[in-house]
C-alpha cells in the first residue's frame, strides 16, 4: 500500500514538473525611419520658421536642418531652379508646399 502511494505521489509530482508552453506576446515592429534629404530638412526647417530665411534665423535653420553654409547654398540654388524658392531682397522664401 505504501509502495503504491509512493508511486502515485511520484507520478503526480512528475506531472507538475512538465513545462507548459505559455505564449509570449511579441512586440509590434517599429516603423523604419527614412532619413530626409538635405533639401527636405531645409524646407521643413524654413517652413517651421515663417517660410523665410533671413539673417536673423539663418543660424537656427542651419542647426535645425543640420546643414553647412555650402550645403545650404546648394539647396537654395536647387530650390530656385525648381521654382520652389525665391530671393526677395536679403530674404530667401519658400514658395511651395506648406508655404504656398
Please count the helical segments.
Answer: 4
Mean pLDDT: 83
Helix and strand succession? HHEHHEE
Side by side, the strands of the main sheet go 1-3-2
Oligomer: single chain
Question: Which word captures the global form?
Answer: rod-shaped
**Radius of gyration, Cα only, in angstroms?**
33 Å
Keywords:
single chain, mainly alpha, three-stranded antiparallel β-sheet, rod-shaped
What would you say this structure looks like, in words?
The protein contains four helices and three strands; from the N terminus they run H-H-E-H-H-E-E. It has helices at residues 2-16, 38-48, 58-65, 69-82; strands spanning 52-53, 85-88, 91-94. The chain has a three-stranded antiparallel beta sheet with strand order 1-3-2. A hairpin with a 2-residue loop joins strand 2 (85-88) and strand 3. Helix 2 crosses helix 3 (58-65).
Amino acid at each position: 500500500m505504501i509502495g503504491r502511494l509512493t508511486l502515485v505521489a511520484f507520478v503526480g509530482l512528475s506531472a507538475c514538473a512538465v513545462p507548459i508552453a505559455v505564449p509570449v506576446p511579441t512586440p509590434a515592429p517599429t516603423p523604419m525611419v527614412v532619413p530626409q534629404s538635405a533639401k527636405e530638412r531645409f524646407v521643413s526647417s524654413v517652413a517651421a520658421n515663417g517660410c523665410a530665411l533671413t539673417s536673423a534665423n539663418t543660424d537656427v535653420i542651419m542647426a535645425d536642418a543640420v546643414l553647412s553654409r555650402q550645403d545650404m547654398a546648394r539647396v537654395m540654388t536647387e530650390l530656385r531652379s525648381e521654382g520652389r524658392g525665391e530671393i526677395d531682397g536679403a530674404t530667401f522664401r519658400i514658395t511651395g508646399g506648406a508655404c504656398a
